[in-house]
Write a structure and sequence with these properties.
By secondary structure, the protein is α+β, with helices and mostly antiparallel strands. Strands 4-7-8-10-17-11-16-15-14-13-12 form an eleven-stranded mixed β-sheet, sandwiched between helices. Strands 1-2-3-5-6-9 form a six-stranded antiparallel β-sheet.
C-alpha cells in the first residue's frame, strides 16, 4: 500500500496510524498498489463528505451526513463510510453503514429501504475510473455482502460497479417541476386531472404534517397494505402483519422524524375522517422524495384520494422551490408504474451493485421464489377446502 496523503482538513491520517473520527476510530484502507487510488480511510470524515456534496449535481437528502444519523438512530447499522484519495488532488466519498462483524458483516450505501447513497466526487464528476477504484476496494473488503445503491440522478447511474457479483436493476419515476404549478397540471393526463377533481367532489380531506403527528395514520395504512400485499402473493394475512411490524416499526419513522425535523412531511388523505392514503416525503437539495406510501385500497380507490394527495404534495414541492418530485421505485411495466407516468413522471433506470463472498442474493431470490410458490399452493388448497 502507498502512503496515505489525505490532509488534516479532510480528516486523513498517515499509513499505519489511526485517529478518532466522526464515525469512530478511523483506519487506513489497504488499496492495491499501482491503481488509480492512492489512499483511503474509513469511516468517512464528515468534512470531506460535505465538500463532495457541495460539488455534486442534484444531491438528495439521503446522501447527507444527517441521513447517516437517521440510520444510526433507527437501526443497528453503524457508520462505515469510505474516503479515497486519487491522483490530481481529487477524492471520492462513499457514505456507508455496516452491521455484524467478520465474515458475516453486512455493509450498504444504504441498507434496503433507506434510499440512495453511492459514490460522490470532490469535483462533482464521477468517472468510470473512479468506479473502478471503489469496486476494487469493495470486492476485496471482508464481509458477507456490500451493496451500493447510487442516486438515480447521478451520472453513470445505469452501470454496475466493476467487480460486483450481482447487479440489481431499478426503475425510479420522477416529475420535473421546473414548469411551475401550471406546467405540472398541464403535464397530467386527462385521467389524473379528472381524478383530482373527483376526489375534491367526494370531499376527500388532505392534511400535511411536519411534526410527526401524522405518522400513526401512515403506520395504520401501512399495516393494511402489508396484509393486502401478503394476500396478493398467496401468503397468510398474519404474516403480512408480522412483516409490517418488523419492517416498519413505529420507532423507525419516529426516529427519522426527530433527526430530519420539518424536512420529513407526512401527507394523509381522509374520507369521512378515516385514513385512506398516505405518503411520507423527504425534502432536501431541491428534491421531494416519496420515501414511503400506503393506502386503504377500498377507500382510496373509490374516492380517487391518491390523485388528490399527490397533486397537493406536488404543488407544495413547487411552492418550496423544489426542482423534482420523485414517486419512488416501481416495477417496470406494472400498473403502479403506469399510474405514476400519468402524472408526467419520467423513467430513470439505475443499478445497485452487490459484492458478495457467497451468492447471498441468488440464494435469497431462490428462497423468495420457493416461499411464493408455497404460499400460492397453500392458497389454492384453502380455496379447494372452501369449495
Amino acid at each position: 500500500m502507498t502512503e496515505a496523503r489525505i490532509d488534516g482538513a479532510r480528516g486523513g491520517t498517515n499509513e499505519g496510524s489511526a485517529r478518532q473520527g466522526a464515525g469512530g476510530e478511523q483506519v487506513v484502507l489497504p488499496l492495491p498498489r499501482g491503481g488509480a487510488g492512492l489512499a483511503g480511510v474509513s469511516p468517512l470524515p464528515e468534512a470531506a463528505w460535505q465538500e463532495a456534496l457541495s460539488h455534486t449535481e442534484q444531491p438528495v437528502l439521503t446522501q447527507t451526513p444527517r441521513w447517516l444519523r437517521c440510520v444510526e438512530a433507527a437501526t443497528s447499522w453503524r457508520d462505515s463510510g469510505r474516503l479515497y484519495e486519487l491522483r490530481g488532488g481529487r477524492f471520492l466519498a462513499v457514505p456507508m453503514a455496516s452491521r455484524g462483524a467478520g465474515p458475516v458483516r453486512l455493509s450498504a450505501s444504504w441498507p434496503h429501504g433507506w434510499g440512495y447513497g453511492g459514490v460522490l466526487a470532490s469535483d462533482g464528476v464521477v468517472t468510470p475510473a473512479d468506479l473502478a477504484v471503489v469496486g476494487a476496494d469493495l470486492a476485496a473488503t471482508p464481509g458477507l455482502r456490500t451493496t451500493l445503491a447510487p442516486s438515480p440522478f447521478a451520472p453513470l447511474q445505469g452501470r454496475a460497479l466493476p467487480g460486483a457479483r450481482t447487479e440489481h436493476r431499478y426503475l425510479t419515476q420522477v416529475l420535473d417541476l421546473s414548469g411551475g404549478t401550471g406546467g405540472v397540471w398541464r403535464g397530467y393526463s386527462s385521467n389524473v386531472r379528472r381524478s383530482v377533481k373527483r376526489a375534491e367532489r367526494e370531499g376527500v380531506e388532505v392534511r400535511c404534517d411536519a411534526s410527526g403527528a401524522g405518522l400513526p395514520d401512515f403506520a395504520h395504512l401501512y399495516r393494511l397494505s402489508a396484509v393486502r400485499w401478503a394476500r396478493k402473493a398467496g401468503r397468510p394475512a398474519a404474516l403480512g402483519r408480522l412483516q409490517a411490524r418488523l419492517q416498519e416499526p413505529p420507532r423507525l419513522l419516529e426516529a427519522v422524524s426527530r433527526c430530519v425535523g420539518q424536512d420529513l412531511v407526512t401527507w394523509n388523505a381522509y374520507v369521512d375522517g378515516r385514513p385512506a392514503a398516505s405518503v411520507v416525503i423527504l425534502h432536501g437539495n431541491g428534491h421531494s422524495l416519496m420515501w414511503r406510501g400506503a393506502q386503504d385500497q377500498q377507500l382510496a380507490g373509490r374516492t380517487h384520494a391518491n390523485a388528490l394527495l399527490h397533486h397537493l404534495a406536488i404543488e407544495a414541492a413547487v411552492a418550496r422551490g423544489d426542482r423534482f418530485y420523485s414517486f419512488g421505485e416501481s416495477d417496470a411495466g406494472s400498473s403502479l408504474a403506469e399510474y405514476k407516468a400519468k402524472f408526467g413522471a419520467v423513467d430513470l433506470t439505475w443499478s445497485a451493485s452487490s459484492f458478495e463472498r457467497l451468492p447471498v442474493s441468488a440464494g435469497g431470490a431462490a428462497v423468495q421464489r420457493a416461499y411464493r410458490s408455497a404460499g400460492g399452493f397453500a392458497g389454492r388448497v384453502r380455496g379447494r377446502v372452501r369449495r
